[in-house]
Design goal:
- This protein is of the alpha+beta class and 471 residues long.
- The protein has 3 domains: 130 residues, no CATH class; 216 residues, no CATH class; 66 residues, no CATH class.
- The chain contains 12 helices and 18 strands.
């Protein structure tokens, strides 16, 4: 968004770190602080943005902030976790932002430092590198991530539950989403596409930045999806909102894009509005707003044309395992004249803010449901029941940093191993030693195919999601 004051060049970076991240640090004072802990920004994408957070945080905290690049494929990971859930960073693999040359910790020999608070900008399958519960304070923690922030399947469930709650209370608000099947196996996808009138959108629920999203308008595009090999075993299928001549049929009718203001060639483009919001002590506050448009104009005639080029607005492009680029020519910034081509008014911006806040509330409420009220531990059984992708569940459980700790306590109490407890949850078996016999074939439990198993004022609920996006 445009700067509120020209003298505050840090803009939304400073507002987010002063409020939401500052709240985390204040909470830490009342708890057991990590002795000798440093501050860190851990990222796997957008170094420019991540380093900006580190620079502003260093200025605000008046101490060096360690910028740590952390990839899933790292042979020598720069981050590790202690048994009691404290993040540690390898100093030689980090950049000390804000440190004087003589104080640059990265120049010291191999050394690990504990982290008392960190900003997580790890976007690709973060559950493989971060625990669900930890002692280090994390902005953008993993729990909201798997409860809907980066898990589209859980997000769909969370939105549906909140919508039902809002309708029951007569509040008059709802999260607007396409008609959605939150969990479908690959062989079920053609049936859902047929249900939506031959047009639809298929998404791998656990990817981001435009990865694993298929817009389907024709048999050729459906066949291409079915021929692709995918890492995960379940999908989310949604009705397609496209041109007035070819949008999906929904129970509530047919919806279509009005598009941008026509250009001089009388062309319109699909565009989305991204509203970024932070949670503070004083409630939710807008941080930034921007838009993205599709590469090709929206047309009624689709013969020989890629539906994604007319509908896909994502800017990020994955060049290789670690290389990302961005098509910034399609970015519409709020402080530039191109933003006017969206044809949005103040009411639309307010609507975008409300939709974003409702989405954040829905995910926060799902986080609360996934935490045992008595022990404060993550409820793996409920999570697996709601989101039964076997590959995702295995990834979370194979991240042995801390995710097995809480489950291990219950397993020991019941006289079974942690590995057996994982298999029991996968097959919805009671966690009792007397039932701890599950036939395994080839190292995995037999039975059950892939992907199976499947009030007034709204409060600011913990745990907080640092940023929300709505389009």
């Amino acid at each position: 968004m445009p700067l509120l004051r020209d003298s505050e060049e840090e803009g939304a970076y400073k507002r987010l770190l002063e409020t939401t991240f500052g709240d985390l640090l204040e909470e830490e004072v009342t708890e057991k602080a990590v002795p000798g802990g440093v501050l860190a920004v851990v990222y796997d994408k957008n170094r420019m943005e991540a380093s900006s957070y580190a620079a502003v945080l260093s200025d605000l905290a008046s101490e060096p902030v360690f910028l740590v690049e952390f990839y899933l494929t790292d042979d020598k990971p720069p981050v590790r976790w202690t048994d009691d859930g404290v993040m540690e960073i390898r100093v030689s693999s980090a950049v000390a932002v804000g440190a004087k040359p003589a104080e640059d910790e990265a120049s010291k020999p191999e050394e690990w430092k504990p982290v008392r608070a960190a900003f997580r900008y790890v976007t690709q399958r973060p559950w493989t590198r971060f625990p669900i519960k930890c002692k280090t304070r994390i902005l953008n923690p993993l729990l909201p991530c798997i409860a809907g922030g980066r898990n589209k399947a859980m997000g769909a469930v969370a939105y549906d539950i909140l919508n039902s709650d809002l309708e029951t209370k007569g509040i008059g608000l709802r999260i607007r989403t396409p008609e959605t099947c939150p969990s479908a196996r690959k062989q079920e996808v053609p049936l859902w596409i047929k249900r939506f009138g031959g047009h639809g959108v298929v998404k791998v629920p656990f990817l981001n930045a435009g990865q694993g999203v298929y817009t389907i308008l024709s048999k050729a595009e459906l066949d291409a999806f079915m021929a692709d090999k995918h890492y995960y075993s379940s999908y989310i299928v949604q009705s397609l909102i496209g041109h007035s001549a070819w949008s999906s049929r929904q129970r509530d009718g047919t919806f279509y894009h009005t598009g941008t203001v026509p250009d001089k060639h009388n062309r319109i483009f699909v565009a989305d509005l991204r509203m970024m919001v932070s949670a503070t002590k004083d409630g939710y506050r807008p941080l930034a707003a921007y838009a993205r448009r599709a590469a090709e104009p929206l047309e009624a005639d689709t013969d020989g044309k890629s539906s994604w080029s007319m509908l896909g607005t994502n800017l990020s492009k994955l060049q290789g395992d670690l290389e990302w680029t961005s098509e910034t020519d399609r970015l519409l910034l709020m402080d530039r004249k191109d933003f006017n081509t969206l044809g949005l008014g103040l009411d639309d911006l307010i609507d975008g803010f409300v939709q974003t806040v409702l989405s954040m509330v829905a995910i926060d409420k799902m986080c609360i449901r996934l935490v045992d009220k008595t022990t404060g531990d993550f409820n793996y059984r409920l999570f697996h029941s709601l989101c039964g992708d076997s590959v995702l569940f295995d990834e979370i459980m194979d991240n042995r940093t801390a995710n097995r700790t809480a489950l291990g306590v219950e397993a020991m109490e019941r006289g079974v191993s942690v590995d057996m407890a994982v298999e029991m949850i996968r097959h919805d078996a009671p966690l009792e030693a007397s039932t701890a016999e599950i036939t395994t074939v080839g190292g995995s439990a037999s039975g059950g195919g892939e992907g199976e198993g499947m009030s007034g004022p709204i409060p600011v609920a913990e745990p907080k999601a640092a940023e929300g996006e709505s389009s």
